[in-house]
Write a structure and sequence with these properties.
The complex is a heterodimer of chains A (300) and B (190). Chain A is α/β, with parallel strands linked by helices. Chain A contains eight helices and five strands; from the N terminus they run αβαβαββαααααβ. Chain A has a five-stranded mixed β-sheet, with helices on both faces. In chain A, helix 1 crosses helix 7 and helix 4 runs antiparallel to helix 5. Chain B is mainly alpha-helical. Classes of the chains: A alpha/beta (300), B mainly alpha (190).
Amino acid sequence: MKLASTVSNLLCVVLFAAIALFSSPRANAEFKVPPLTGRVVDAGNVFTAEESAQIEAAILRLESATGGQMVVTTLPSLEGLSIEDVGIRLGDAWKIGNKGKDDGAILIIVVPERKMRLEVGRGWEGPINDARAGDVIRGLAPFFRTNKYADGAVWAVESVQQYVTGKEVERTVAVPATGDSNTDSESGGLLETILGVFCSIPLFALLFWCLWAIFVYVVIVPIWLFLYLIFALCGKQFPMIDPAALTGLGFLSGLGDGGGSSDSSSSSSSSYSSSSSSSSSSHYSGGGGSFGGGGASGGW
Amino acid sequence: MKSVWGILIVFVLIIISIGLFGLVSYNGLIRKDETVKQTWSDIDAQLQRRAELIPNLVNTVKGYAAHEEKIFTEVAQARENLVKAATPADKAAADAELNSAVGRLLAIAESYPELKAADAFVRLQDELAGTENRIAVARTRYNEAVKIYNAAIRGIPGVFFVKSLGLEPASFYEVPAGREAVQAVPVVQF
Protein backbone atom coordinates (compact mmCIF):
# COMPACT_ATOMS: atom_id res chain seq x y z
CA MET A 1 0.00 0.00 0.00
CA LYS A 2 2.67 2.44 1.01
CA LEU A 3 4.68 1.61 -2.08
CA ALA A 4 1.70 2.23 -4.35
CA SER A 5 1.02 5.60 -2.80
CA THR A 6 4.68 6.68 -3.01
CA VAL A 7 4.86 5.62 -6.63
CA SER A 8 1.74 7.57 -7.49
CA ASN A 9 3.10 10.57 -5.60
CA LEU A 10 6.34 10.30 -7.50
CA LEU A 11 4.46 10.10 -10.78
CA CYS A 12 2.56 13.25 -9.90
CA VAL A 13 5.77 15.09 -9.11
CA VAL A 14 7.38 13.94 -12.36
CA LEU A 15 4.30 14.91 -14.31
CA PHE A 16 4.22 18.34 -12.73
CA ALA A 17 7.94 18.83 -13.35
CA ALA A 18 7.57 17.76 -16.95
CA ILE A 19 4.75 20.14 -17.62
CA ALA A 20 6.59 22.98 -15.89
CA LEU A 21 9.76 22.19 -17.79
CA PHE A 22 8.20 21.95 -21.18
CA SER A 23 5.67 24.72 -20.95
CA SER A 24 7.99 27.70 -20.81
CA PRO A 25 6.09 30.18 -22.92
CA ARG A 26 7.99 31.83 -25.73
CA ALA A 27 6.76 34.83 -27.61
CA ASN A 28 5.17 33.33 -30.68
CA ALA A 29 5.58 35.20 -33.94
CA GLU A 30 2.34 35.59 -35.80
CA PHE A 31 3.83 33.77 -38.70
CA LYS A 32 3.19 30.07 -38.45
CA VAL A 33 5.39 27.65 -40.30
CA PRO A 34 3.06 25.47 -42.35
CA PRO A 35 3.44 21.73 -41.83
CA LEU A 36 5.71 19.94 -44.24
CA THR A 37 3.12 17.84 -45.97
CA GLY A 38 5.18 16.96 -48.99
CA ARG A 39 7.55 18.28 -51.60
CA VAL A 40 4.97 20.86 -52.63
CA VAL A 41 3.43 22.79 -49.74
CA ASP A 42 0.63 24.79 -51.29
CA ALA A 43 -0.44 26.81 -48.27
CA GLY A 44 -1.35 29.71 -50.50
CA ASN A 45 -3.69 27.62 -52.65
CA VAL A 46 -2.11 28.53 -55.94
CA PHE A 47 -1.68 25.19 -57.68
CA THR A 48 -4.25 22.69 -58.86
CA ALA A 49 -3.73 19.09 -57.87
CA GLU A 50 -2.40 18.35 -61.34
CA GLU A 51 0.08 21.18 -61.18
CA SER A 52 1.29 20.07 -57.75
CA ALA A 53 1.86 16.61 -59.17
CA GLN A 54 3.76 18.06 -62.09
CA ILE A 55 6.03 20.07 -59.77
CA GLU A 56 6.51 17.09 -57.50
CA ALA A 57 7.58 15.00 -60.49
CA ALA A 58 10.18 17.60 -61.39
CA ILE A 59 11.43 17.59 -57.81
CA LEU A 60 11.67 13.81 -57.80
CA ARG A 61 13.84 14.02 -60.91
CA LEU A 62 16.03 16.54 -59.12
CA GLU A 63 16.31 14.31 -56.08
CA SER A 64 17.45 11.32 -58.06
CA ALA A 65 19.90 13.41 -60.06
CA THR A 66 21.44 15.29 -57.14
CA GLY A 67 20.70 13.32 -53.98
CA GLY A 68 19.48 16.47 -52.29
CA GLN A 69 16.04 17.75 -51.38
CA MET A 70 13.90 20.61 -52.61
CA VAL A 71 10.55 21.98 -51.57
CA VAL A 72 8.30 24.39 -53.43
CA THR A 73 5.94 26.28 -51.17
CA THR A 74 3.34 28.97 -51.64
CA LEU A 75 2.20 31.12 -48.75
CA PRO A 76 -0.90 33.23 -48.38
CA SER A 77 0.93 36.01 -46.58
CA LEU A 78 4.24 36.98 -45.04
CA GLU A 79 2.52 38.29 -41.89
CA GLY A 80 4.63 41.42 -41.91
CA LEU A 81 7.95 39.59 -41.98
CA SER A 82 10.51 39.96 -44.71
CA ILE A 83 10.66 37.06 -47.12
CA GLU A 84 14.26 36.44 -46.09
CA ASP A 85 13.12 36.02 -42.50
CA VAL A 86 10.40 33.62 -43.58
CA GLY A 87 12.89 31.73 -45.70
CA ILE A 88 15.25 31.06 -42.84
CA ARG A 89 12.40 30.08 -40.52
CA LEU A 90 11.16 27.54 -43.04
CA GLY A 91 14.69 26.27 -43.49
CA ASP A 92 15.21 25.87 -39.75
CA ALA A 93 11.84 24.23 -39.19
CA TRP A 94 11.73 21.87 -42.16
CA LYS A 95 15.45 21.09 -42.35
CA ILE A 96 15.41 20.36 -46.05
CA GLY A 97 18.52 18.64 -47.28
CA ASN A 98 20.57 15.80 -45.85
CA LYS A 99 22.18 16.21 -42.48
CA GLY A 100 25.82 17.04 -42.83
CA LYS A 101 25.60 17.74 -46.54
CA ASP A 102 22.97 20.49 -46.21
CA ASP A 103 21.99 19.97 -49.83
CA GLY A 104 18.55 21.50 -49.90
CA ALA A 105 16.63 24.38 -51.38
CA ILE A 106 13.25 25.95 -50.81
CA LEU A 107 11.36 27.99 -53.38
CA ILE A 108 8.92 30.34 -51.68
CA ILE A 109 6.17 32.04 -53.67
CA VAL A 110 3.85 34.56 -52.07
CA VAL A 111 1.32 35.47 -54.73
CA PRO A 112 -0.74 38.11 -52.91
CA GLU A 113 2.41 40.10 -52.14
CA ARG A 114 4.13 39.30 -55.44
CA LYS A 115 7.35 38.17 -53.81
CA MET A 116 9.47 35.09 -54.21
CA ARG A 117 12.65 33.71 -52.77
CA LEU A 118 14.95 30.83 -53.44
CA GLU A 119 16.46 29.78 -50.13
CA VAL A 120 19.61 27.74 -50.65
CA GLY A 121 21.05 25.33 -48.09
CA ARG A 122 24.64 25.66 -46.94
CA GLY A 123 25.81 22.71 -48.97
CA TRP A 124 24.46 24.07 -52.21
CA GLU A 125 25.76 27.61 -51.78
CA GLY A 126 28.72 26.63 -53.94
CA PRO A 127 26.93 25.50 -57.12
CA ILE A 128 24.04 27.88 -56.52
CA ASN A 129 25.83 31.03 -55.51
CA ASP A 130 23.88 34.19 -54.93
CA ALA A 131 24.32 35.41 -58.48
CA ARG A 132 22.85 32.20 -59.89
CA ALA A 133 20.03 32.28 -57.37
CA GLY A 134 19.41 35.80 -58.58
CA ASP A 135 19.33 34.49 -62.15
CA VAL A 136 16.68 31.96 -61.18
CA ILE A 137 14.59 34.63 -59.50
CA ARG A 138 14.89 36.93 -62.49
CA GLY A 139 14.00 34.03 -64.77
CA LEU A 140 10.84 33.39 -62.79
CA ALA A 141 9.49 36.90 -63.26
CA PRO A 142 8.16 36.38 -66.81
CA PHE A 143 6.40 33.17 -65.68
CA PHE A 144 4.75 34.79 -62.71
CA ARG A 145 3.77 37.94 -64.55
CA THR A 146 1.64 35.77 -66.80
CA ASN A 147 0.24 33.77 -63.86
CA LYS A 148 2.11 30.63 -64.89
CA TYR A 149 3.05 29.78 -61.34
CA ALA A 150 3.31 26.05 -61.74
CA ASP A 151 5.34 26.28 -64.92
CA GLY A 152 7.63 28.75 -63.22
CA ALA A 153 8.11 26.43 -60.27
CA VAL A 154 9.00 23.53 -62.57
CA TRP A 155 11.43 25.74 -64.46
CA ALA A 156 13.05 26.80 -61.17
CA VAL A 157 13.39 23.19 -59.99
CA GLU A 158 15.00 22.22 -63.29
CA SER A 159 17.35 25.21 -63.11
CA VAL A 160 18.44 24.20 -59.62
CA GLN A 161 19.09 20.69 -60.86
CA GLN A 162 21.10 22.05 -63.74
CA TYR A 163 23.27 24.21 -61.51
CA VAL A 164 23.92 21.47 -58.98
CA THR A 165 24.72 18.68 -61.43
CA GLY A 166 26.46 20.91 -63.94
CA LYS A 167 24.69 19.02 -66.71
CA GLU A 168 22.05 20.28 -69.13
CA VAL A 169 18.57 19.36 -68.00
CA GLU A 170 15.79 18.48 -70.37
CA ARG A 171 13.32 21.32 -69.99
CA THR A 172 9.65 20.45 -69.75
CA VAL A 173 8.32 24.01 -69.74
CA ALA A 174 8.96 26.86 -72.12
CA VAL A 175 9.90 30.32 -70.95
CA PRO A 176 7.01 32.60 -71.87
CA ALA A 177 7.75 35.40 -74.27
CA THR A 178 7.06 38.70 -72.59
CA GLY A 179 3.58 39.87 -73.51
CA ASP A 180 1.90 36.48 -73.35
CA SER A 181 -1.83 36.48 -72.84
CA ASN A 182 -2.98 36.03 -69.29
CA THR A 183 -3.56 32.30 -69.03
CA ASP A 184 -5.63 32.04 -65.92
CA SER A 185 -4.46 29.03 -63.95
CA GLU A 186 -7.14 28.37 -61.37
CA SER A 187 -5.83 29.32 -58.01
CA GLY A 188 -6.32 26.17 -56.04
CA GLY A 189 -9.47 24.38 -56.82
CA LEU A 190 -12.10 25.94 -54.65
CA LEU A 191 -14.31 22.89 -54.52
CA GLU A 192 -11.47 20.69 -53.38
CA THR A 193 -10.60 23.16 -50.63
CA ILE A 194 -14.15 23.16 -49.25
CA LEU A 195 -14.36 19.39 -49.33
CA GLY A 196 -11.00 19.13 -47.64
CA VAL A 197 -12.07 21.43 -44.83
CA PHE A 198 -15.30 19.55 -44.19
CA CYS A 199 -13.69 16.14 -44.21
CA SER A 200 -10.96 17.18 -41.84
CA ILE A 201 -12.93 18.09 -38.73
CA PRO A 202 -14.95 15.10 -37.82
CA LEU A 203 -15.64 14.97 -34.11
CA PHE A 204 -13.90 11.71 -33.53
CA ALA A 205 -10.65 13.15 -34.83
CA LEU A 206 -10.94 15.90 -32.24
CA LEU A 207 -11.58 13.39 -29.49
CA PHE A 208 -8.66 11.29 -30.65
CA TRP A 209 -6.43 14.32 -30.50
CA CYS A 210 -7.44 15.07 -26.91
CA LEU A 211 -6.65 11.52 -25.86
CA TRP A 212 -3.35 11.69 -27.71
CA ALA A 213 -2.38 14.94 -25.97
CA ILE A 214 -3.09 13.43 -22.56
CA PHE A 215 -1.14 10.32 -23.45
CA VAL A 216 1.85 12.37 -24.55
CA TYR A 217 2.07 14.39 -21.38
CA VAL A 218 1.28 11.64 -18.89
CA VAL A 219 3.21 8.73 -20.32
CA ILE A 220 5.68 9.71 -23.00
CA VAL A 221 7.19 12.76 -21.37
CA PRO A 222 8.27 11.19 -18.04
CA ILE A 223 9.69 8.17 -19.83
CA TRP A 224 11.57 10.45 -22.19
CA LEU A 225 12.92 12.50 -19.27
CA PHE A 226 14.19 9.33 -17.65
CA LEU A 227 15.85 8.11 -20.85
CA TYR A 228 17.37 11.54 -21.39
CA LEU A 229 19.01 11.46 -17.96
CA ILE A 230 20.33 7.96 -18.51
CA PHE A 231 21.86 8.93 -21.81
CA ALA A 232 23.32 12.10 -20.34
CA LEU A 233 25.02 9.93 -17.75
CA CYS A 234 26.65 7.95 -20.54
CA GLY A 235 27.83 11.17 -22.09
CA LYS A 236 25.68 10.84 -25.18
CA GLN A 237 23.06 13.30 -26.16
CA PHE A 238 19.54 12.03 -26.38
CA PRO A 239 17.36 14.21 -28.55
CA MET A 240 15.01 16.43 -26.60
CA ILE A 241 11.47 16.17 -27.80
CA ASP A 242 9.11 19.00 -28.15
CA PRO A 243 5.77 17.73 -26.81
CA ALA A 244 4.11 20.84 -28.15
CA ALA A 245 5.14 19.74 -31.61
CA LEU A 246 3.96 16.19 -30.94
CA THR A 247 0.52 17.33 -29.90
CA GLY A 248 0.33 20.37 -32.12
CA LEU A 249 -0.26 22.70 -29.18
CA GLY A 250 1.23 25.85 -30.64
CA PHE A 251 0.88 27.89 -27.49
CA LEU A 252 3.08 25.58 -25.47
CA SER A 253 6.05 25.93 -27.75
CA GLY A 254 9.62 25.95 -26.63
CA LEU A 255 11.79 23.80 -24.48
CA GLY A 256 13.17 24.35 -21.01
CA ASP A 257 16.92 24.78 -21.31
CA GLY A 258 17.56 21.65 -19.33
CA GLY A 259 20.26 19.97 -21.33
CA GLY A 260 21.11 22.79 -23.66
CA SER A 261 19.97 22.02 -27.13
CA SER A 262 22.31 23.44 -29.71
CA ASP A 263 19.46 24.48 -31.95
CA SER A 264 19.33 28.06 -30.85
CA SER A 265 16.94 29.47 -33.40
CA SER A 266 13.87 27.43 -32.62
CA SER A 267 11.47 30.19 -31.77
CA SER A 268 8.80 28.99 -34.16
CA SER A 269 7.65 25.49 -33.43
CA SER A 270 6.95 23.68 -36.61
CA SER A 271 3.57 22.24 -35.91
CA TYR A 272 3.30 18.77 -37.34
CA SER A 273 -0.36 19.13 -36.55
CA SER A 274 -2.73 16.22 -36.24
CA SER A 275 -3.15 14.89 -39.72
CA SER A 276 -6.63 15.23 -41.06
CA SER A 277 -8.17 11.93 -41.94
CA SER A 278 -8.54 12.85 -45.58
CA SER A 279 -4.92 13.74 -46.32
CA SER A 280 -3.11 11.04 -48.19
CA SER A 281 0.32 11.95 -46.91
CA SER A 282 3.15 9.76 -48.02
CA HIS A 283 5.31 10.70 -45.12
CA TYR A 284 7.83 13.25 -46.32
CA SER A 285 10.27 14.87 -43.99
CA GLY A 286 13.35 17.01 -44.14
CA GLY A 287 16.70 15.26 -43.96
CA GLY A 288 18.20 17.46 -41.27
CA GLY A 289 19.89 19.96 -43.56
CA SER A 290 20.73 23.42 -42.32
CA PHE A 291 20.49 26.83 -43.92
CA GLY A 292 22.73 29.83 -43.57
CA GLY A 293 20.69 32.50 -45.29
CA GLY A 294 22.02 32.07 -48.82
CA GLY A 295 19.83 32.56 -51.87
CA ALA A 296 18.07 35.41 -53.56
CA SER A 297 14.73 37.16 -53.41
CA GLY A 298 12.74 39.23 -55.78
CA GLY A 299 9.31 40.27 -56.91
CA TRP A 300 7.37 40.58 -60.07
CA MET B 1 17.19 -2.23 10.81
CA LYS B 2 14.65 -2.00 8.04
CA SER B 3 13.99 1.70 8.38
CA VAL B 4 17.73 2.49 8.54
CA TRP B 5 18.28 0.68 5.25
CA GLY B 6 15.30 2.56 3.80
CA ILE B 7 16.72 5.92 4.77
CA LEU B 8 20.15 4.94 3.48
CA ILE B 9 18.73 3.92 0.11
CA VAL B 10 16.79 7.16 -0.22
CA PHE B 11 19.92 9.09 0.73
CA VAL B 12 21.98 7.31 -1.92
CA LEU B 13 19.28 7.94 -4.52
CA ILE B 14 19.28 11.61 -3.68
CA ILE B 15 23.05 11.79 -4.03
CA ILE B 16 22.86 9.99 -7.38
CA SER B 17 20.20 12.34 -8.72
CA ILE B 18 22.15 15.39 -7.61
CA GLY B 19 25.17 13.93 -9.35
CA LEU B 20 23.20 13.29 -12.52
CA PHE B 21 21.77 16.76 -12.42
CA GLY B 22 25.21 18.27 -11.96
CA LEU B 23 26.59 16.24 -14.83
CA VAL B 24 23.80 17.23 -17.16
CA SER B 25 24.18 20.91 -16.42
CA TYR B 26 27.97 20.77 -16.74
CA ASN B 27 27.69 19.20 -20.16
CA GLY B 28 25.03 21.68 -21.06
CA LEU B 29 27.28 24.60 -20.21
CA ILE B 30 30.09 23.26 -22.33
CA ARG B 31 27.72 22.79 -25.24
CA LYS B 32 26.36 26.29 -24.92
CA ASP B 33 29.84 27.74 -24.87
CA GLU B 34 30.71 25.83 -28.01
CA THR B 35 27.56 27.05 -29.69
CA VAL B 36 28.53 30.63 -28.94
CA LYS B 37 31.99 30.07 -30.43
CA GLN B 38 30.62 28.36 -33.50
CA THR B 39 27.99 30.99 -34.23
CA TRP B 40 30.61 33.69 -33.76
CA SER B 41 32.87 32.12 -36.34
CA ASP B 42 29.88 32.06 -38.68
CA ILE B 43 29.51 35.81 -38.37
CA ASP B 44 33.22 36.26 -38.84
CA ALA B 45 33.21 34.18 -42.01
CA GLN B 46 30.36 36.18 -43.51
CA LEU B 47 31.95 39.52 -42.62
CA GLN B 48 35.15 38.28 -44.23
CA ARG B 49 33.25 37.31 -47.35
CA ARG B 50 31.65 40.71 -47.52
CA ALA B 51 34.99 42.41 -47.04
CA GLU B 52 36.24 40.45 -50.06
CA LEU B 53 33.30 41.48 -52.23
CA ILE B 54 33.73 45.18 -51.60
CA PRO B 55 36.86 45.77 -53.72
CA ASN B 56 35.13 44.06 -56.65
CA LEU B 57 32.18 46.34 -56.23
CA VAL B 58 34.34 49.43 -56.04
CA ASN B 59 36.25 48.44 -59.18
CA THR B 60 33.08 47.77 -61.13
CA VAL B 61 31.66 51.15 -60.21
CA LYS B 62 34.99 52.83 -60.97
CA GLY B 63 34.78 51.41 -64.47
CA TYR B 64 31.73 53.58 -65.13
CA ALA B 65 32.00 56.44 -62.66
CA ALA B 66 35.71 57.03 -62.24
CA HIS B 67 35.51 60.57 -60.93
CA GLU B 68 33.47 59.76 -57.79
CA GLU B 69 36.67 59.64 -55.77
CA LYS B 70 35.24 60.61 -52.41
CA ILE B 71 32.90 57.68 -51.99
CA PHE B 72 35.60 55.20 -53.02
CA THR B 73 37.92 56.37 -50.27
CA GLU B 74 35.10 56.30 -47.74
CA VAL B 75 34.27 52.71 -48.59
CA ALA B 76 37.92 51.65 -48.50
CA GLN B 77 38.35 53.28 -45.09
CA ALA B 78 35.23 51.67 -43.65
CA ARG B 79 36.35 48.29 -44.94
CA GLU B 80 39.73 48.65 -43.26
CA ASN B 81 38.05 49.54 -40.00
CA LEU B 82 35.98 46.39 -40.19
CA VAL B 83 39.01 44.22 -40.81
CA LYS B 84 40.81 45.78 -37.84
CA ALA B 85 37.91 45.51 -35.37
CA ALA B 86 38.22 42.81 -32.73
CA THR B 87 35.41 42.62 -30.20
CA PRO B 88 31.83 41.84 -31.24
CA ALA B 89 30.64 45.33 -30.36
CA ASP B 90 33.43 46.94 -32.39
CA LYS B 91 32.74 44.68 -35.32
CA ALA B 92 29.05 45.50 -35.20
CA ALA B 93 29.75 49.22 -35.28
CA ALA B 94 32.31 48.92 -38.09
CA ASP B 95 29.87 46.71 -39.98
CA ALA B 96 27.16 49.32 -39.70
CA GLU B 97 29.48 52.03 -41.00
CA LEU B 98 30.54 49.90 -43.92
CA ASN B 99 26.89 49.21 -44.69
CA SER B 100 26.16 52.89 -44.79
CA ALA B 101 29.14 53.62 -47.06
CA VAL B 102 28.22 50.82 -49.45
CA GLY B 103 24.66 52.05 -49.46
CA ARG B 104 25.81 55.47 -50.56
CA LEU B 105 28.00 53.92 -53.23
CA LEU B 106 25.06 51.96 -54.62
CA ALA B 107 22.89 55.06 -54.49
CA ILE B 108 25.45 56.86 -56.61
CA ALA B 109 25.48 53.93 -59.01
CA GLU B 110 21.75 54.44 -59.52
CA SER B 111 22.45 57.52 -61.59
CA TYR B 112 24.59 55.65 -64.11
CA PRO B 113 22.16 53.59 -66.22
CA GLU B 114 24.93 51.76 -68.08
CA LEU B 115 26.38 50.64 -64.79
CA LYS B 116 22.99 49.57 -63.48
CA ALA B 117 22.43 47.34 -66.49
CA ALA B 118 25.94 45.91 -66.48
CA ASP B 119 25.89 42.17 -65.84
CA ALA B 120 28.83 42.28 -63.47
CA PHE B 121 27.14 44.93 -61.36
CA VAL B 122 23.85 43.05 -61.18
CA ARG B 123 25.59 39.89 -60.08
CA LEU B 124 27.61 41.78 -57.49
CA GLN B 125 24.39 43.20 -56.10
CA ASP B 126 23.07 39.66 -55.84
CA GLU B 127 26.16 38.59 -53.95
CA LEU B 128 26.00 41.59 -51.66
CA ALA B 129 22.34 41.08 -50.89
CA GLY B 130 23.00 37.41 -50.22
CA THR B 131 25.90 38.19 -47.92
CA GLU B 132 23.86 40.79 -46.05
CA ASN B 133 21.20 38.21 -45.44
CA ARG B 134 23.73 35.66 -44.27
CA ILE B 135 25.17 38.20 -41.85
CA ALA B 136 21.70 38.92 -40.53
CA VAL B 137 21.02 35.21 -40.02
CA ALA B 138 24.40 34.59 -38.40
CA ARG B 139 23.93 37.59 -36.14
CA THR B 140 20.52 36.39 -34.97
CA ARG B 141 21.86 32.94 -34.22
CA TYR B 142 24.88 34.30 -32.41
CA ASN B 143 22.83 36.65 -30.23
CA GLU B 144 20.43 33.84 -29.43
CA ALA B 145 23.31 31.57 -28.42
CA VAL B 146 24.82 34.33 -26.28
CA LYS B 147 21.49 34.87 -24.56
CA ILE B 148 21.15 31.20 -23.69
CA TYR B 149 24.77 30.95 -22.58
CA ASN B 150 24.70 34.06 -20.40
CA ALA B 151 21.51 32.92 -18.74
CA ALA B 152 23.03 29.51 -18.05
CA ILE B 153 26.20 30.93 -16.50
CA ARG B 154 24.21 33.07 -14.15
CA GLY B 155 21.61 30.43 -13.32
CA ILE B 156 21.83 28.09 -10.38
CA PRO B 157 23.76 25.06 -11.43
CA GLY B 158 25.87 27.02 -13.92
CA VAL B 159 27.14 29.51 -11.42
CA PHE B 160 29.06 26.78 -9.57
CA PHE B 161 31.00 25.72 -12.64
CA VAL B 162 32.01 29.16 -13.85
CA LYS B 163 35.26 29.30 -11.88
CA SER B 164 36.39 25.80 -12.69
CA LEU B 165 35.78 26.26 -16.41
CA GLY B 166 36.96 29.85 -16.59
CA LEU B 167 33.85 30.99 -18.38
CA GLU B 168 33.01 34.61 -18.98
CA PRO B 169 29.80 36.19 -20.12
CA ALA B 170 29.76 36.76 -23.86
CA SER B 171 28.83 40.05 -25.44
CA PHE B 172 26.07 40.56 -27.95
CA TYR B 173 26.69 41.51 -31.53
CA GLU B 174 24.77 44.73 -31.77
CA VAL B 175 25.45 48.30 -32.68
CA PRO B 176 26.11 50.41 -29.59
CA ALA B 177 23.49 53.10 -29.08
CA GLY B 178 24.35 56.34 -30.78
CA ARG B 179 26.30 54.79 -33.60
CA GLU B 180 23.43 53.43 -35.57
CA ALA B 181 23.73 53.70 -39.30
CA VAL B 182 21.09 53.22 -41.92
CA GLN B 183 21.04 49.82 -43.59
CA ALA B 184 20.94 50.97 -47.15
CA VAL B 185 21.70 48.00 -49.37
CA PRO B 186 18.91 48.04 -51.90
CA VAL B 187 17.01 44.85 -52.57
CA VAL B 188 17.21 43.51 -56.10
CA GLN B 189 14.30 45.15 -57.86
CA PHE B 190 12.56 44.48 -61.13
